[in-house]
Amino acid sequence: MEFDPRRPYDGGMTNPASRLAAAKWHLRLEDCNNVSDFRELARRRLPGPVFHYIDGAADDEVTRRRNTESYERCDLVPNVLAGVADIDLRTNVMGRDIAMPLFLSPTALQRVFHWQGECAVARAAEKFGTYFGISSLATVSIEEIGHSISTPKMFQLYIHKDKGLNHAMVEACKAARFDAIALTVDTIVGGNRERCMQTGFTSPPRLTPSSAFDFAMHPRWTLNYLLREKFELSNLKNHVAQGSRQAISIQDYFSTMLDTSMDWSTAEKVRADWGGQFCLKGIMSVADAKRAVDIGATAIMVSNHGGRQLDGSRAPFDQLAEIVDAVGDKIDVICDGGITRGSHVLKALSVGAKACSGGRLYLYALAAAGQAGVERILGKLQDEIARDMRLMGARSIKDLTRDNLRWR
Known about the structure:
Layout: H1 16-23, H2 35-45, H3 48-55, H4 62-72, E1 74-76, E2 91-93, E3 96-98, E4 102-107, H5 110-113, H6 117-127, E5 132-135, H7 142-148, E6 153-157, H8 163-175, E7 180-184, H9 194-199, H10 209-216, H11 219-227, H12 250-257, H13 264-274, E8 277-283, H14 286-294, E9 299-302, H15 316-327, E10 332-336, H16 342-351, E11 355-358, H17 360-392, E12 405-407
Parallel strand pairs: 4-5, 4-11, 5-6, 6-7, 7-8, 8-9, 9-10, 10-11
Antiparallel strand pairs: 1-12, 2-3
Helix pairs in contact: 1-2, 2-17, 6-17, 14-15, 16-17
């Protein structure tokens, strides 16, 4: 499927610098200065079905657009003459100090996007001293990540119908000394991801008459996928064939393999079995945030799954203030989704989030250039956060308050 610039989301290409970078015939890693640039480089380097899996969302992708646009409806009001020679970006979230208030959300299938996969992202996160999360649908094992990096690690748990599988993943996280488990609560069924339907994207990627030409036009990706380590969903392969040995769409995987009876008692049982830092990912209402506190969760990620589930839902940033007001003194509130700039992070922190997280912001970079790409986008975002804090007159995270914000 050819890239269509009329698709609902333009990746921030209204930015003149991004348009300039995209116009270069030989776009390189060193030309990428923001998420939009990496999105364009990823588009060029990935077969269409793979790119559109990262880039796409549910239905008309309304929520996908809102996630970033919501930050643009809020203005920063800077203070000056604050003496900002030294600033402190550190924050504490889910029991661990991290060196910057942005971390890498767990995302699935990373070795489909680049052969280095989760290992590259983990090493980049370690370099920047921040949390890294892997998915139940990761292409590397819990054990390997546990042994390979020392910085904070989160495992994102999907509740499967196979209770033995759920238990095995939690026990593996204990053995690998993970710091937190995040239970994803917004995937009772798969969202209506029409781009994936149009392109035929599956896990593992399936060669079809319609995709063969596209794969052939991207020989670097195709050769890496075919000739390097065999693709698998490492934490699932011994329990289910789907996704590793049998091709299946992510939408169908969610709708057939996950437990639709999951409820609050399920979440409470996982928390008790795990016994450590426990986060609910996908909280969007005040009522659910309060319930998360009641069951003993230590963190929530205010998230709509990147707009990939319920289209027409609110953006996380739009919901953040009322959730922080309700539970921010009792639980770590993390704003997840839509972040493409350091100023977005500052706005969420000013509302009261303990930290921010994102997926696409590093997946584009991973797809474009592997570990080097992830390190470059993290460096760019870290620089933006630090620069913008100085411009705001903020020497530490605690100096960012709602006094610095105005809504349009």
